[in-house]
Amino acid sequence: CSGCGAELQCCDGAAPGFVPAEKYRSLSEGPAGAAGLRGAVCQRCWLLAHHGRALRLQLPPEQHRLVVSAALRRPPRHGRGPLLLYILDVLELPDPVLRQLPGLLGPDVPVAGLLVVGNKVDLLPADSPGHLGRLRQQVAAACAQAGLREVPLVDVRLVSAKTGFGLEGLVSRLQRSWRCAGDVYLLGATNSGKSTLFNTLLHSDYCKSRAPDAVDRATVSPWPGTTLNLLKFPIINPTCDRIFRRQERLREEATKTEDQLSSEEKKYLNHLKKQGYLVGRVGRTFQRQKPSQVIDFDPDVLSYSIDEDPRHSPRQREEREEFTYNEVKDARWCFDTPGIVKENCVVQFISQVLNLLTEKEVKLVLPTHAIVPRTFILKPGMVLFLAALGRVDYLQGEKSAWFSVVASNLLPVHTATLSNADAIYEKHAGRELLKVPMGGEERMKEFPPLVPQDITLKGIGTSEAVADIKLSSAGWVAVTAHAEEKLLLRAYTPKGTALVVREPPLLPYISSIRGARIAGTAAYRTKKPPSLVENLKTTGKR
Q: With the C-alpha atoms ordered 73, 75, 80, 83, is the resulting torsion angle positive or negative?
């Protein structure tokens, strides 16, 4: 399958790579023979890409790990081990899989280096000047705490694979330091954004100029574990001439203002601004000029219904481009790998909680747009609900404290008193007020109950949060309290999932991103900071 890497088959609908038998025969028995299957996608990828539906597959928990481990243990090609490009979701720090890397590699894997990429920075608002530098330090600290002494750390970069922020810098770093010395493997936990990064690099200066025409994009979805096997594209050789031409393009683009962009570019840029706080423009220096296509009218092509897949027509299959032997015989490849599922460690909750949710619930829980923080001021004896997935009780303290929720904008947040919190949960869990899970009493019968954990914190000032309370995969609550003020809190997450107290917090000044207090409530009005576009000249004051 060109979308997830699974071997195509038509025998078992519950196994990876399934294609309906009729479709499989039409592809494999055409003029191209078995080659007709090239570029085809399995039923699961088709449903994910076109209908947002996820099919649960019968996969052993260790299957993804075995695929990754086997790939890394291959004999070194070109006399040098691979570079590992580890993709880390900054929202999930401390990353649960970093500590597993040494065991995954083993002592006999000749890795040349590790470049850690902190992804999804576009979702987080800037809580203070220099917040990206602080985030980078926290990612580097997570690497140090993971004990990765056997693998040399090349660099730490912050990017958004979705909006393109930091991607041109990442490509330049790879071409300067790694050049074309060996293969590159994209590694990381499920849902870290590896396949999105793979697709962005596929349409950048990092791959051979003809690769986007011959390599299909990886299937991307919010459902964990979308990629099931290896996907790859050939890396371009960054010769001195190519690097010079690329730098010329980047310098020229950096002199442009937004007004100088084409209407198409402006439209796409505005689309990205709505999705993230940090936006980048990923261009291409080395593009092969395509001959103008002659449109041949074929009434048969127009006869497809909207539910059919026109990509499987024999006419389009014949026009599919393929690499020649000489083009790739000495190529270095960039591999997308299956997401590594968390083992029994302190932060294993992410995959477990998502496995408890339905497709609709996953789409609500995983943030896809810039997160707008929601801040509440609570007195002792008050409770904060994040949907029906998490809860924080303020049990003891002398003064009020600020609780800033960093989670998907689609998840509801509600406050209550300690005396009626249990009744609210019993009445509204599974219903519209708390929203997730959804499905009423029947849904809640199969959903695990919330279990408590007591937390003691000491405030460090009214402008700086002391810690984040991570409520499973739902998000986190940053707690800000008066200096030296002792707080006793009780946090709840679904049974079988772990709760993490993150110190220092990821965004310590998050409570400052708020509007005026809403009269008669514990809530403040929300405030969304403006988006920033890198490598684009600004005009006037922002």
A: negative
